[in-house]
Write a structure and sequence with these properties.
The chain is of the alpha+beta class. Helices cover 16% and strands 37% of the residues.
């Protein structure tokens, strides 16, 4: 979602805005290329906007791996991927088919990442989104775009 601020044009919706609104965020993992300065890479990721943020320390003891979060709009703005939250299908082990949906569990339905900012080319090997986690408890959420 974008806001217009008088005299300065469109303003990005921040992670803090999304958290205050109770929106589910998209969890991401970034893997840096071998031999790069991972601290500089993390700074480059975090300078992409106020709608994305990565941890400053490596994940699981690996300095090349960073965990982060981004808003659905930020994912679209930065990576061209549209994420929509959908109910998680129930799997029936007896019949071997999906039947109905869980009322309190969700997954991301998305288009693939189509690009990323060129400033990341020197640092980032891959960026991978994950499925919703504990911050998605079934709250109402409507992204500002449609698939």
């Amino acid at each position: 979602m974008r806001f217009l601020v008088a005299g300065i044009g469109p303003m990005l919706r921040t992670l803090d805005d999304a958290i205050r609104a109770g929106e589910p965020l998209i969890d991401l993992f970034a893997t840096f290329k071998d031999g790069v300065d991972c601290k500089a890479g993390t700074l480059s990721l975090n300078r992409l906007g106020k709608d994305i943020e990565f941890d400053k320390v490596g994940l699981m003891g690996d300095p090349r791996l960073r965990a982060g979060q981004v808003t659905a709009e930020g994912m679209y703005r930065l990576f061209g991927a549209k994420f929509i939250r959908t109910p998680l299908e129930r799997w029936d082990e007896n019949t071997g088919i999906h039947c109905g949906y869980w009322q309190d569990a969700f997954r991301w339905s998305s288009t693939p990442i189509s690009h990323w900012p060129c400033v990341l080319d020197d640092y980032v090997e891959s960026i991978t989104p994950t499925q919703p986690g504990a911050n998605d408890v079934g709250q109402f959420y409507e992204p500002s775009f449609s698939l």
